[in-house]
Predict the structure.
Amino acid sequence: MKKLQYGMLAGFLILYAVCVTSGSKVLTFRQAVTVHYKDRGMTGTQLDEIYEQQRQKKEEKALLPGQQGAGQEVKELPDITGWYREEEQDVENPELNIRTQTDRIGAWGNMAEILPGPLLCGSYVNSLDEEGCVISSALSEKLFRSTDTLGCSLRIGGKTYAVRGVVSNDGQILLHRAKKTDLLSSLEFRYRGKEYSASEVRNFLTQQGLTNYDSLLEGGLYAGFAGIFLGLPPLLLGAVILRRLWKRLLRSHISILSQNQMSRFLYRMAAVIGIGLFLLLWVCIFVRFPADYVPAGVSDFEFWIVKLQELSADHRKLLNYQGWYQEAFLLGSLRRCIFGSLSSSVLLYFTAR
């Protein structure tokens, strides 16, 4: 019996490790909002102009009489990364005469945000490097029979690129720097602060005339769900510990409780307060949703109905965009987090019986 319990406890630890590893990947999207378009978007030139306008506003605000230092009151724009994607482009290794097809991505901004996954070697391409590219490990294996391919050359669309880095990814993908005039059909807004609101992104898109997007990914929303499942096993573990401590306390004071009604009342009040504090601590640590998903009152049922409808519609769109790497990475990580959380919780429950 002891061996079985130890085995189940080991299984709990392994499954919860899967939950934590996957959940931490989801949490990296907490401050991100990604928008995809089919036929519209922005160019690198437009993005640069927006940042320049923002910089000028801050400087003008700071120079107003009696407003020295007030430039900080101008709300900071998030970091915006844009990219476009072309599917099934012909690519070749001219030295080995190997040809295949790949997804080609032209990036503007932080290239690391586009393709989740660790760098196996090298680095991402800087903004001035028009001859370099980053490829996925699957494409590297296909073209060069290796992932140690820094400095190797390949041709795509009549242009030769040198490999600057290799990212771990099962898809055949090539990333390079977009031109200033290229239309970027995908935009990611990455906030530097702790809090953000997706409504700010929608307001920004409205100002730029880009409201007809095809898919919008609110990373903070999915990170909120991941937080709940990350906290489920610790919540259950805490409940098991509290239950055993309560039973031990009752056994040691059974004679006093049987004779003193006031003592029974105080013990029960202590138990209710302890459970309440434990749940409050759990909520503060693990349950964190964006401000847009926090109602003005708990009884605001219409708010919940509207938000559930929006969430359902957005989730259906996300399922149709599995080809987008961020969505596939985030949803896959969230599924593994949920599986690890529920499985470890079940094992912990049977272990504690």
In short: Residues 2-29+221-352 form one domain.
